[in-house]
Amino acid sequence: MAGELIISVSGLRGVFGDNLTPEVAADYAFAFGSFLRSCNLNIAKLNVCLGRDSRPSGQILADSISSSLTKIGINVINLGIVTTPTVGIMVKHLACAGGVIITASHNPLPYNGIKLLLDNAMAPPPEIAGLIKNRFLKKDFVQADSITSGTVSQNVDADDVHIEKVLAVIDQKAIAKKQFKVVLDSVNGAGGRPGIKLLNILGCKITPVNTQPTGLFAHTPEPSAENLVSLCDEVKKADADIGFAQDPDADRLAIVDENGIYIGEEYTLALAAKLIFSTQKGIAAANLSTSRMIDDIANAAGGRVIRTPVGEANVASAMIKNKCVIGGEGNGGVIDLRIGPIRDSLVSMAFVLHLLAQTGKKLSQLVTQLPRYHMIKQKFPADKSKIQSILEAVKKIFPDAQVNSSDGFRFDFADGWIHIRGSNTEPIIRVIAEAKNESAARKYIETVLNIVKN
Ligand code: MG
Fold first, then answer.
1. Residue 242 is inside which H or E element, if any?
2. Catalytic one among 54, 105, 317, 345?
3. Whether domain 6-156 has CATH 2.60.40.10
4. Angstrom distance (rounded) from CA 66 to CA 83
5. Which of 113, 224, 277, 317 is 20 to 30 A from 210, alpha carbon to alpha carbon?
6. Residue range 349-406, pLDDT digits in tens
């Protein structure tokens, strides 16, 4: 089942006990720590935050990583089970040299992974990720001696620090006044505990579903429609205003409306943008595969959207460079730099509740008022060596489109767009099309499919 261990800019991912063993985790931490030591030569002792999602295998990997980091003279601040954005927030809050997050995000339980953060709370850029990978492959590690060994300490403030930051950017009183009925499904991941804490502070009446951090996922963890049937039922049963679903490391959020209807992850960023642009102009950033809804929302407010290659760090970097007021990805990942440069389900929940309170509307009404698009996502197997020639062939059939070639090709037309890119980790081409209606979106997809087939 395992296939190969995947090492990318965002870290390492594999199947625990198969290709992702405690020894592999130990070496990866040695490589990361050695890199940090090599670029902080004049600092006596470095601190690194370590957090994990709730997968049971995370404890074993955390022990390995802790052990390696202390052996090379780094102090580990263990945050325990926390969300992915929480680790980033604590890296900055505690002025650490870096962070390590043990998570395989939305992947099934047998998987786990290790994500690395630099002192800016962002994943290493490709050139640094390459240096760390080289150290890992060549076992090019530094070692501490009896005096310079690192220490391990526990920090239990992380949830509170994170929640404080979220509360600082929303109207807590306006939300609390509404006493929203909320169903929260955390899939027994890391998001349940801080999620409930935040929603309690926001005066919500909560129906918790799968909010224990056991790591025993109650359903397939990807927060997509087919996996959230029970959440939709719970929302109806509880006569709730809204249902929220987090993925296991709680960076992504999917939403169910008051009728128990899953509205789709693209709407999370659109609703967040709606709130932000209701009071200010400015620039947003979104990756090339994200719905055009955000452009319509930003344009209507006198703002605009910068499109970036796929990948959280690409969006976050563009946000910092352009001082963006909001950003994220269409997979339910919202980034607000005031919280941190990482997708965050907690701020996403708070933004959507704030928007409900501010407008006095039901969620289904808000969704109806957003621009309507139909999106189709497909993937086709393609030999890695042929991906570039396929992309070039596709380019020729859309000569009149506006083209963005920063990550594969995105072609924009008056009524929609299509984005075609080779996967970084698998021999496949991903194609996403969006248009005002389904037949137009399907036509774009079929045009590309014909090229791929030939
Ligand atoms: Mg995730």
1. strand 242-246
2. 105
3. no
4. 18
5. 113
6. 999 999 999 999 999 999 999 999 999 999 888 887 888 888 888 888 888 899 999 9
